[in-house]
Amino acid sequence: MKRAGRTRIGLLLLMPALFVAGYVSAAGYHALVPYAPSWLGSARAALNPTDAFRTVLAEIEAHFYGEPPAIDKLTYASIEGMLATLNDPYTRFMDPEAFRRMQEDTTGSFTGIGALLEDAPGGARIVRPLPNSPAARAGLQPGDIIIAVDGKSLERVSLDEAVRMIRGPRRTTVRLTIRRNGVDEPFTVAIERDLVESPTVDVYLEDQENKIYRIWLQNFNEKAPQLLDRALTEIQQNGARALILDLRANPGGLLDAAIEVTSRFVPGERVVVSIVGREGLLERRETLRGRYRNLNIPIVVLINSGSASASEIVAGALRDHKVAMLIGEDSFGKGSVQTVIPTSRNTAVAITTAKYLTPSGYDLNAKVVDGKRIGGLKPDIEVKNPEDWRMTEEDKARDAQLQKALEVLRERIGASKPSEGVLRAQHDAEVNR
């Protein structure tokens, strides 16, 4: 099972530093404490890694001054420390909570408040509440910054951790402290968690007179192909003359969903992506029979630095097969394959096992050079949006990437003039009511 995927320092990484900084040698250690494990200071008692782990765990439980963490916490930390030595941000251990969240994200539903979040100074900013979600019903607005969850500050908390704190069992209440522009003091909102469907496909008629549609595909979960089919059927029935496939801020998801989506746009059995492991080519994935929609209209794909993994596979395949041009900014550059391997009933490890190449052989993986990420897909036409631009209806007037796509498509279809756009549908909300 292959998944797109993000690591931490653990106990094993800290152990050498403790011996060097605190005890220097086995002799010093014996002088400081009245006990010592038999293997310490004895060159002849070399242990294999499994024995070493068991021994250290036993010594912690027997001799640590104070109450040691639960054995599962110690074990998880040691695994995370081991994986950290690989220097791969995508190889990671998933404890029961993280494994559950991964499963929810790929199936397309979870329990929470229903808001898209991004990093912000001092907390997590709401990009937009999802339609008919607990967040929307509570009056949360785009731009609101969550600075605390149940009284715990988010000042030094990662976005992943903030999401974990906000999610929880259905019908339970979470209290969010909000900082809002134009409001002098932060305020607290109590929200009852509920089942939320992940946003997947929204459809917009961006140019009513010239019938130019935009399909915003927001992730590649199990529902993406079905929801995309509904969107394509609608725009075909309404006489679409051109299409913008918007993959901006799409972090990816399932490889199978990416193959399905590409198959709607690329005719015949053609290569979508090559998967290369450490021993060479492992597999070439091709478009699927019977999925091609034959739109017969010009297509533009929008990408930005938030377009990653499955988004890059689709965008790269559509360009390589001359189905669409790319407009926007360099994509993220996440072209590696993670294989998710269960390690128990409710834990798993995601291990990077291969990398993706586009049909032309382009390596999607970005590299860090002098602290900067270099790589990912390069757009055919580079257009940057303002740094404070938000992907919302309210901020559409400043969306230079969208305006450039409309300009290119109007030229392709010979349109004489632009016209006003309107919101047509939100397919994920319709399907999951």
Task: Tell me what you see in this structure.
The structure is a single chain. With 433 residues, the protein is α+β, with helices and mostly antiparallel strands. It has helices spanning 11-23, 26-32, 49-63, 71-84, 96-107, 134-137, 159-166, 224-237, 255-265, 310-320, 400-413, 427-431, and strands at residues 2-3, 92-94, 109-112, 115-120, 123-129, 145-149, 152-153, 173-179, 187-192, 194-197, 201-207, 212-217, 242-246, 271-277, 280-286, 299-303, 324-328, 336-342, 348-357, 367-369, 372-374, 381-382, 422-426. β20 (367-369) and β21 form a beta hairpin. The radius of gyration is 25 Å and the shape is globular. The model is unreliable at 1-40 and 424-433 (pLDDT under 50).
